[in-house]
Structures are given as C-alpha cells and as structure tokens.
Amino acid sequence: MQLSKADLLKAYRMMKTIREFEERLHVEFATGEIPGFVHLYAGEEASAAGFCMHLDGRDRIASTHRGHGHSIAKGCDVHAMMAEIYGKKAGLCGGKGGSMHIADLDKGMLGANGIVGGGPPLICGAGLAAKMLKTGGVAIAFVGDGGFNQGTTAESLNLASVWRLPCLFVVENNGYAESTSSKWAVSCDDFTDRASAYNMPGISVDGHDFFAVYEAAGEAIKRARSGGGPSLIEVKINRYYGHFEGDAQTYRGPDEVKKLRETKDCLMLFRKRVEGATLIDAADMNKVDTEVLALIDDSVKKAKAAPKPTAADLLTDVYVSY
Amino acid sequence: MARKINYQQAINEALNQEMTRDPTVVIMGEDVAGGMGTDGEQEAWGGVLGVTKGLYKKFGDRVMDTPITESAFIGAAVGAATAGLRPVAELMFIDFMGVCLDQIFNQAAKFRYMFGGKAETPVVIRTMYGAGFRAAAQHSQCLYPVFTHIPGLKVVMPATPYDAKGLLIQAIRDNDPVIFCEHKVLYTLEGDVPEEPYAIPFGEASVVREGKDVTIVTLGRMVHMATQAADNLAKAGIKCEVIDLRTTSPMDTDTILESVENTGRLVVVDEAHPRCNIATDVSALVAEQAFDSLKAPIKMVTAPHVPVPFSDTLEDLYIPNAAKIEAAVKAVMGKKG
To answer: Could you identify which of B152, B236, B282, B292 might form a hypothetical disulfide with B109, taking C-beta atoms 3.0 to 4.6 angstroms apart as the criterion?
Structure first.
C-alpha cells in the first residue's frame, strides 16, 4: 500500500505524539502529582497508528486499560487528554473518567476500559449500528493478550461472525497480562489459531513494523467495509513500561526492555525505513519531533495549572434526564 | 380507544408501535424470533413465552436472534446504542444478569458519568423476573434491587397492561439505559389499554387505592396482592392507601412521604429477598424523612432470605401474599390476627 509523503508524516506524528505523551507521563507520574492508575502504551505505537491511519469519522474503536495510544491515534485532543489524566475539569471527561476511561464518542473513541475484555461486545454493537445504518463504517476492538482470553472476547468473535459484522478484533500481544506471561496463560501458540474456530481470517503481524501493521489493517478494514465480515489480527508487540506505573517489572528479563528499545523500537524502525528509501527527509521528521515535544510540554503545563472540578460537578452527568 | 388486552400483548404492541415510528429501534435476544437456521418454522417462538411474536414477520432483520451469549449481545446492544441505534435487548430471565452484568453496570450505566456527560446510551433491556412458575432458583428471582442500586440505570416495574405499554414506550424513547422488568406471572393479566401509543413518565408512582389508615408501598406483581389485601381489609373497616411505585429508579419519594404523613403507618411489600431490597429502601426513606409522622413501627412483607424453591408447596410459602399483607397491616394498626 502506497503512502503519500503527507500520510507518512501524519503516521510519524501520531506515533511520536503517543510516545512523548507516555514518556512524559512516566516522568510526571513519578512526582506523585498524577492520581490513580496509569497504564502506558510506549513501545506499541505502530499498532494504534497502523490501524487508525485507515479510519475516519464513521469508524469506532474500543480500547483497553492501555488506552492513551488508541485515543491519540483516533483523534482525541491531547490537551484535553492530559487534563483528564490530571483529574481537571477541562479534561476530556471533565475529570470524571481519568486515564482508564478516556473517551470521545464524537471522535468514535468508545473509551479506554477499566474492565479487561470489556470492549469487544461494545464493538459488536458499533459494527451492528454501522451495518444497519449503512454508514460504511467499521468497528475495531483493541484487546490485550489478557483480555483476549476473556469470555466476552470469545462470545464477541462468535457473534460478529454469525452476524457478519464489519468488525476487527485486534489482540495486541505484548507478552504480559499484568505480570503473567502470555506464553503461560494462552492456550495456543498464536492467537490466530483461534480465528478458524470463528470462521474468520486470522492474521499475525510484527507490531514493531508500522508498515506491516498498516498493510494488514488495511486489508482487514477493506474486507469489513465491503461486507466481508470480521477479522482477527494478532499484533506481536512489546511494552516498555510496567502493567501500570509503579510496576517494577521484576518479572522481565535483565536488559529485556533496553534491548527492545535498541533493536525493535517502532519509531526507530520507521525512520530507518523512510529515510533509507528517501521517502521523507530527516529534517521533516525532526521538525515533527520539535513540535510534538512542545505540544506535550504545553499540555502538561496547562493541565497542571487547570482548575479541578468542584462540588457542583459531583452529582451531574449521571443521566440525560432523571 | 381502550380495549382489553393482556400484559404480554401490551408489551408486544409497544414494541410494534415504536418500531413502526422509529426505524432505529431494533430488537435482539435469544429466540426473539426463533427457528433461525432450522428447516422448520420461521419465527417459531417469538420469544421464549411469545412476547415478541409477529415482530420478525413485520420488521424482518430488525428483530435479531442471537447465540446464547448474553455478554456479547447485551454488550452489543449497549455499543449499538452509542452508535445511532435504539436497541431493545431481551435478557430472557433476570437471573441471567449473572453472566452479563459487566456490560450493564460497568459499561452502559457508567458511560455518561465516566465520559463527562458526553455519552447517551438509549438502550432498553427487557427482562423477566419473579416467582410463581415453579421455575426454581435460577429462573425466578427478583433481582431488580441490584439494578436499582446502580447510578446510571433506570429500573421500570410495570404491574398492569396499561403501565406495561406506556412505560415501555417511555423506556424506548428515553435516552438513558433502562432495565424493564416484566413479571412472568403477569403476562396473562388483562386490562384496559388504549390502542394509540402513549408514554408514562418515569418516577411517578400510581395510587391504586386511596385510604387514610395505612400506606402500603409496593411494586410489580405485589401490587395485585396488596390491592387484594386492601379490599379485604376495607370490609373490616381498615382503609389502606396502596402505592404502586412503577419505577424504582427514579423513585417517586414525594408520593410515598405525602401518603405516610397522612396515614402515619407504613407497610412495604416487595417480592425480593429481604436484605437491601426496595422494601428496606422505602423504609429507610420514611424512617429518615417522615419519622415524626409514624404512629407505629414500619412493617415489611417480603420473600424470605432463601433461594426460590421448586416444590409448589414451598414456592407458595415463599411468595408474599394477601394474607401476609393483611396481617402486617393489622399489626401496624395495633390489632391482633
């Protein structure tokens, strides 16, 4: 699949924004100023970008605990996201959701999800709505290797197949469900082994390679849009940080993350590929780097300075009417 | 024009009229059409007790059978509600909430608040509850207090065919998630129901008997037990005011409090288990806000703290009835027997 220079830069900016957002949160969380639980997506950027580069306003996604990357890739406002994570009124959810519930339905982002395996049933519904309302939209459930073992996921794969829904079930297998290895907790060697049981294509892809993800995603999305039904895609990937911030990751091998950063980093591989093929200039990407860093810095400054919700906000937004 | 139809037909009529009015209303659930994929009759069942019969014939693909996977299809109804449809999902028995509760209370109920007031989830979950069918412990429960506990859900408990139609139409038009609880014993109950569509607002209790001596607050099937008791007691000179809550969330607290302020006595009748149910909720409300009006301690008439038994002798003992209500009323009146 051919990507224009503008698209390449867009994808790079998307991944870089996610990376810097997460790297900065890692630093800021350690100061104690960020409340609650934060699960970082650093290392997995090519997955969110590889899928979401194909999507538009008709399309919907559901995410996981580790939802910042999907949110940014689906177009959620970075300033509002940062303010939300700081629990501020200007946050994307008014400070009522936080990191685990970042959502923007207007952007087709049905939410990060605090429940492992919570998203796939919702995505069946979003796919059903797209099909019945003939919008041409697709719906994508991003699920981790932990969530892909949940009954909700199994049920949703079956339902999407039976109803022939325009849905994708993307298992981002980063090797660990919390501290438990997917090598131990998953009954099969590859999640794609399960696809045939649900009568749908199963595709495995190297999640460090944006281009591989983009291509696999494009084919599955095209099939879904044209009425060809759902797909299961396993993205083999790694996370740099712990399950949540504060996780010392003593279950990981020595230098495991260091080696990943040096050899498999998706941003590094992306730059190598496009610079090597002289698709875009290093200067263009360096400019993106500078702009992204400034954006993240500004978002943190503004989030820190922003006012918190007040007592008047406690009881609102429960019902449309009551 | 009103004519007599039963509770089940009233629900079917509400679905039919709303689906006719609004093309985004869809139905999904186990065997809501029935016969899918078989060589036999299409729409073989129309729901396990026939409540949705005829709708598949009329609306085709807008009436969707599902595999027996409640998490997937209840969740799909919730997801579809965020994406432009107004699904009415059927959770066959309320007891099955145990296999799909996450999608109801962690997803549907939470979206609006968690997402800062920007989500609307107009989903209705119709579900059958209650004892009396000899259906035993996993098909007879009254789990509506569990849903009532959850902010973000509305809980509807129609007691009559008239209310079933009007409250279901309101539920479908409502923009919040609604749990619509149908008592299986009431399906054959007949009553006057207007042919034309009408919506009954939530949070407005119905005073089904007026009286000055004792307030009886109740809901669902127990409304009929309570009115039977009230009619019997009237012959003995005790005038009961019977309040049918109609919805437990929102709950019409004003009507309860005004009545208790007039009568000074309260009996609450609830088919649910006695702990943390609607009876305890109403009792707490009155104890907190109308204590000074009370002339006698509050009495609760509920099922006991046991699972619903199978054997008819045991189930009949389990279910609250008019005699138990009459005894409770006499007790708060300070009369023996």
So the answer is: B152
Residue A320 has pLDDT above 80, yes or no: yes
- What are the tens digits of pLDDT across the range B122-158? 999 999 999 999 999 999 999 999 999 999 999 999 9
**Closest Cα to residue B14, out of B1, B29, B3, B25?**
B25
Superfamily of domain A5-313: Thiamin diphosphate (ThDP)-binding fold, Pyr/PP domains (3.40.50.970)
Q: How far apart are CA A212 and CA A215, in angstroms?
A: 5
Q: Give the minimum alpha-carbon distance from B190 to chain A in angstroms, rounded to a whole number.
A: 30
pLDDT of A197 above 70 = yes
Q: What angle do CA A112, A115, A119 make, to 5 degrees?
A: 60
Nearest to A322 among B62, B81, B250 (CB): B250
What does the pLDDT average to over A261-274? Answer: 97
Q: Which domains does chain B have, with CATH numbers?
A: 2-194 (3.40.50.970), 206-332 (3.40.50.920)
Q: Whole-angstrom Cα distance, residue B288 to residue A7?
A: 64
CA distance B304 to A268: 66
Q: In three state form, how does the secondary structure of chain B look?
A: CEEEEEHHHHHHHHHHHHHHHCCCEEEEECCCCCCCCCCCCCCCCCCCCCCCCCHHHHHHHHEEECCCCHHHHHHHHHHHHCCCCEEEEEEEEHHHHHHCHHHHHHHHCCHHHHCCCCCCCCCEEEEEECCCCCCCCCCCCCCHHHHHCCCCCEEECCCCHHHHHHHHHHHHHCCCCEEEEEEHHHCCCEEEEECCCCCCCCCCCEEEECCCCEEEEECCCHHHHHHHHHHHHHHCCCCEEEEECCEEECCCHHHHHHHHHHHCCEEEEECCCCCCCHHHHHHHHHHHHCHHHCCCCCEEEECCCCCCCCCHHHHHHHCCCHHHHHHHHHHHCCCCC
Closest CA to A148 of A102, A110, A182, A198: A182
Angle (deg, nearest 10), helices A5-30 and A45-52: 140
Q: Name the residue ranges covered by the structural domains of chain A.
A: 5-313
Residue A223 in this model has a pLDDT that exceeds 90: yes
Contacts of A128 in chain B (CB under 8 A): 76, 79-80, 85
Task: Find, in chain A, the residue whose alpha carbon is nearest to that of B81.
Answer: A125
ipTM computed for the complex: 0.94
Q: Which residues of chain B have pLDDT under 70?
A: 336-337
Report pLDDT for B336.
60
Amino acid A1: pLDDT: 61
Active site residue B139: yes
With contacts defined as CB-CB under 8 Å, which chain B residues touch A125?
75-83, 85, 87
DSSP strand pairing (A180-181 vs A176-177): antiparallel
pLDDT of residue A276: 86
Residue B267: strand pairing partners = B216, B299
Q: What is the pLDDT of residue B26?
A: 98
Q: From the list B78, B110, B116, which residue is nearest A92 (CB)? A: B116
Question: Smallest Cβ distance to B112: which of A123, A133, A320?
Answer: A320
